[in-house]
User: Which sequence fits this backbone?
């Protein structure tokens, strides 16, 4: 559905500290002011899910924008059919850069997982997703939690390697290529059942990938703990 200004403002007040939209300023990834100017591209037919925030977000809609490996999200989606997708975390109000530490809090009950799941479903209702909306899950732990607690409600989902993954095969270009391949296959396989928005590579995407491949040897990689990279 197309967002009204009223709904956009309401979502910003309720969820803007941990959510955002998959649209970026190519010249300044951290600039989220364009979201209010590009509301026509925002969509709820696709939802991208991370585990939790790793640092405090000082402003509205700033999650997933302009920090470290989040640049890969911009490279992968800014000119794709999934530009404008809603982006959020499964676990809210918990700042933890180490996914193993977060997992320990879930296992000990320090984090009330059922409360988090209820809050997530409320958020999805407020955003306006449907049972046919596509959920893109970044990382093993998000996928594990989603399959166990949410897949019966939102059956159209696909798991992708977390964008903080690094190492052989996971340069910026490598991650983008692998993620596109997964989404292309999923959209083909589920289009008839869920009317999944088709994911195909347009000319701008191909040009972006070629640039990343050409520049891969010059990219400065940010090292993150293995526990975060594999979340």
Assistant:
């Amino acid at each position: 559905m197309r967002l009204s200004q009223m709904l956009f403002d309401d979502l910003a007040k309720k969820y803007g500290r941990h959510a955002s939209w998959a649209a970026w300023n190519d010249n300044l990834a951290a600039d989220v002011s364009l979201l209010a100017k590009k509301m026509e591209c925002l969509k709820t037919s696709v939802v991208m899910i991370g585990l939790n925030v790793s640092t405090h977000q000082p402003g509205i809609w700033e999650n997933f924008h302009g920090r470290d490996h989040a640049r890969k999200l911009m490279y992968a989606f800014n000119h794709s059919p999934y530009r404008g997708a809603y982006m959020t975390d499964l676990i809210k109000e918990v700042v933890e850069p180490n996914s193993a530490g977060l997992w320990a809090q879930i296992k000990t009950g320090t984090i009330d997982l059922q409360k988090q799941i209820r809050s997530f479903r409320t958020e999805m209702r407020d955003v306006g997703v449907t049972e046919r909306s596509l959920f893109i899950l970044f990382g093993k732990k998000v996928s594990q939690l989603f399959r166990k607690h949410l897949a019966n409600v939102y059956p159209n989902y696909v798991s992708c390697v977390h964008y903080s993954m690094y190492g052989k095969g996971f340069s910026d270009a490598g991650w983008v290529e692998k993620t596109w391949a997964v989404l292309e296959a999923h959209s083909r396989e589920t289009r008839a059942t869920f009317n999944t928005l088709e994911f195909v590579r347009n000319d701008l995407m191909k040009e972006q990938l070629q640039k990343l491949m050409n520049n891969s040897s010059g990219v400065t990689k940010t090292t993150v703990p293995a526990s975060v990279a594999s979340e």
Notes: The first helix runs from residue 5 to 15. The CA atoms of residues 81 and 199 lie 6 Å apart. The chain has one domain: 5-229. The longest strand covers residues 43-50.
